[in-house]
Specification:
five-stranded mixed β-barrel, single chain, globular, alpha/beta, 2 domains, Rossmann fold
């Protein structure tokens, strides 16, 4: 039995989610050795990928609702910098560049297609779209085939005959996410009418993307095609596709570790304490914004503020941008400890009685 995982340990850099046991096992096989933990009756695994701390959560089961709650809880307890969803998906026949079974899908946008408005003319869909973390998406785009191609033999007699011989490849584009297992050509054709560039359909990415949007971490999905969501749908490709997605994900994790080598292993706290103060008086904010000067970038890296958020900070007033980014995510109470760890030479902006 694994040891217990306490919330006083450093936060994971990346929390990884799967829906099915076959997806999780393929991921653990690709990651290699890991430490096993028990937390509130759940089995967790923590892996080190070139200095990056990766937490693998138990399978959530299929569906956006369940995995959204799963991801929101993980954010609240472990405070990961990034969320990664790994697994299998249905592909859209004829999509992308010769999309085939076993190919990997990485969405540049996740599209929720279940919401609709009922009118006298009938139901009108209201699509929800979420973008993945730009940095993670860029890393995924740079992964070479040799880094992730599965070593196993692909199932025979299922994939349409290829026009040219090739191994699995990665495709980037919209992925549709809903609450239904689709095994019907007409349903996919209808969705593709609205989203002609859609690569695939699945049931979890919207939930994780929404949790990331509300909770602050970055997000990326990596899934491989196990069927074409039609009447020929079966489970024969599940293992192969799960392995392909897992190996591709590990390649992304290694790139992430290389990009964040300077901050790898930074001990961000896991949980937000229940008695954490809501904020600080205005005078403390003024001292912080005036005194931080050029050291704001180290603080932003410590908290994993994504590049696109940093670019929105007003030039010359970046410390205020950092403050407000943390404030909206209820993380201001972490500032004193963070500054003490990365810049103990700075003045103490948070003296006795600083909290409101």
């Amino acid at each position: 039995m694994g040891q217990k995982l306490g919330i006083t340990e450093p936060a994971p850099d990346i929390a990884v989610f799967t829906a099915l046991p076959v997806e999780r096992q393929a991921l653990l096989d690709a990651l290699g050795p890991s430490a096993r933990y028990r937390w509130q009756g759940q089995g967790l695994n923590v892996c080190d990928v070139d200095g990056t701390r990766v937490l693998v959560l138990p399978p959530s089961g299929m569906g956006n609702v369940g995995i959204a709650a799963h991801a929101a809880r993980a954010i609240g307890v472990w405070n990961p910098a990034q969320l990664l969803l790994v697994g299998i998906a249905g592909g859209v026949r004829g999509a992308g560049d010769d999309l085939r079974l076993g190919d990997v899908l990485v969405p540049d946008q996740v599209v929720g297609y279940e919401l609709s408005k009922l009118t006298v003319e009938g139901a009108k869909p209201r699509y929800e779209t979420y973008r993945p973390d730009y940095g993670l998406l860029s890393m995924a785009g740079s992964v070479e085939p040799a880094e992730w191609l599965p070593s196993g033999t692909a199932p025979a007699g299922v994939d349409p005959p290829p026009t040219t011989s090739r191994g699995p490849k990665a495709h980037f584009g919209p992925v549709l996410s809903g609450e239904k297992v689709i095994a019907d050509d007409h349903t996919v054709d209808g969705l593709r009418t609205a989203w002609p560039k859609a690569l695939g359909v699945e049931m979890e990415s919207l939930g994780v993307a929404l949790a990331a949007y509300r909770g602050g971490p970055g997000f990326l999905m990596v899934k491989a095609v196990c069927d074409f969501a039609d009447s020929e749908k079966n489970d024969e490709w599940h293992g192969y596709a799960a392995a392909a997605a897992a190996r591709f994900s590990v390649a992304v994790l290694r790139r992430y570790a290389g990009e964040h080598a300077a901050t790898a292993g930074a001990e961000r706290p896991q949980a937000v304490p229940m008695n954490a103060p809501d904020g600080f008086p205005g005078a403390v904010k003024v001292r912080f914004c005036r005194g931080l000067v050029d050291d704001w970038e180290d603080l932003a890296d410590y908290f994993g503020i994504p590049p696109y958020s940093k670019r929105r900070f007003q030039t010359g007033n970046e410390p205020r941008g950092v403050w407000e980014w943390l404030e909206t995510r209820h993380k201001l109470h972490l500032l004193p400890q963070a500054l003490q760890e990365i810049h103990p030479d700075l003045p103490n902006f948070f003296g006795p009685g600083a909290h409101t």
